Amino acid sequence: MQELQPTDAYDALLDRIERLTYLRDAGGVLGWDQQVTMPDGGATARAEQLSALSGVTHELLTDDEMGELLDRCEAGSLEEDKQAVVRELRREHDRATSVPSELVERHAAASADAQATWQSAKADSEWDAFAPTLDELRELRIERADHIAPDAPTYPTLYDGGMPTLPLETVEEIFADLKERLVPLIDDIRANGDDLADPFVDRTFPASEQASLNEAVAEFLGYPDDRGRLDESAHPFTSGTQFDARITTRYKETDPLDGLTATIHEFGHASYALGLSDDAYGTPLGTARGEVHESQSRFWENHVGRTRAFWETFLPTFKRHLSGVDDLTVREAYEAANRITPTNAIRVEADELTYHLHIILRHEIEQSYLDGDLTVDEIPARWNEKMDEYLGVTPEDDAAGPLQDIHWTTRFGGFPSYTVGSVLAAQLTAAMEEDIDVESCIRDEAFGKLWEWQTDHLHRHGQRYTADELVEVATGEPLSADAFIEYAEQKFSALYGL
Question: Which of 52, 73, 97, 384 has the lowest CB atom count within 10 Å?
Fold first, then answer.
C-alpha cells in the first residue's frame, strides 16, 4: 500500500466501512424478507445468500489493507469524531480477524437454517426437533469465542460481541439490585394488592381489526410512512436504517394489548434508527449503539404506552378500531395495560416487573449451557424449574418454554440488553422530566417533543461515545437500577393500593 497520511488513510478507511455497512444493510433486508414475505421454499437459497454475503463482509472487514489503514489512522492526530470511527472499527476488526472466514460462513448458514427449524419446532412444540440444531450452534459459537479470546470464558466473550462497551459487571450488579427489590414488591402485590380490571378476558378480537388498530397507533405516535412500514411476523422485530426502518408485530385474538404494546415497542426501536444522522449513514456515527437500543423501545412501550395519560388520549382511537369496547373506561384500559401477571410464561407478554426475572432466567441458562454444566436435553427441565422458582408457574409445553424466543438461532449473550433497556428507559425518563413535562406531552399528543429529546440526547450521537459514556452524556449519571426501582415502586404501589 502506498504510504498515506493519517487524514488520507482515514478517507480510504471511511470508503471501506461505508461499503461494509451497505452490504450488511442489504443482508438486513434479506433477513426481513425471510421472516415476513419469503415463501417457505426459499429457505435453502436464502441461507446460501446470507452465508455468501456474510463471507464477503467478513473478508472486507479483516483483510490486511483494513488493518494497515487503521494503523496509519491511529499513528496520527485526528479529530474527535474521526477517532471514534477508528475506535469502533478497530474493535470490530480485531475481533473479526481472529475468526476464519470459513467459520463465519458456516455460522451464518447454520443460523439461517436454524430459524426455519425453530419456527417448525415451535409450531409443533417439539424441543427435540430443535435441540440438535442448537447444539450445532453452541459448538460453532464456542469455536468462534475460542478464536477471539482463547484464554477467556465463553460467555463473557459472546456477551462482548453484542454489548462491548457496557461492562458485564455493571449488568450483573443491576440484576442483583433488581432481584433484591422487585421480588418483594411482586410478592406484596400478590398478597395485598387490589384487583385490577381485566376487560378483555374471555373475549376475542379479530386480527383484521387489530391490524387496523396497530396501523393507527403507529400513525398516532408519528411513525413516518415514507421511511417505514408495519407488517406481521412470528416474533416482532425492527430492521433498517435512518432511511428505511421497518417494524413487525403479531396479533393474539384473545388479547388486543399484546399486539398493541409490541407495535409501540418496535416503534421505539425504529425511532432510534430514524433519529440517527442522515449525513453520517454508512459510518459508526450514523449507526445506533446496540447496548442502549432497547431503552428506546421500552421507553415508548412503558413510559408512554402504558401511562394513564396515553390512554386518556388514545382510547377514542382504540374504540374506533375494535368492536365491543364502547363501554371501556380510561381506568380499565390503564389497569389492563399494567396488570401484574406472575403466572404468565411468555417473556414478550410479561409485565414490567416480572419481565426481568424472565431475562435473568435466560441469562443463567445460557451461562450454564455454554459452560457445559447443562446439556441441551436438560434445558426444558431446567427452564421449568427456574420458572417455578422465580414466578411460580410451569409452562404448558416447550413452545411456551425454551422455544418461545428466536434469539438463540442468532446469538448467545444478548438477553441482558432487555433489562438494561428497561433500566435505562427509566433513567432517561427521569432526566427528560427535568427538561419537559412528559405527562403533558403524552396527554397533548406532542410525541414529537419526546422523540426530539431522545434524538438530541441519544440518537444523534450514533457511536460517538461508548455505551457507558453515552448514558452519562444523556442523563448526567452512570447507569444504575436506581431510577427504575424508584419508578416501579411508586407506580405499582399506587396502582395496587399498597
Answer: 52
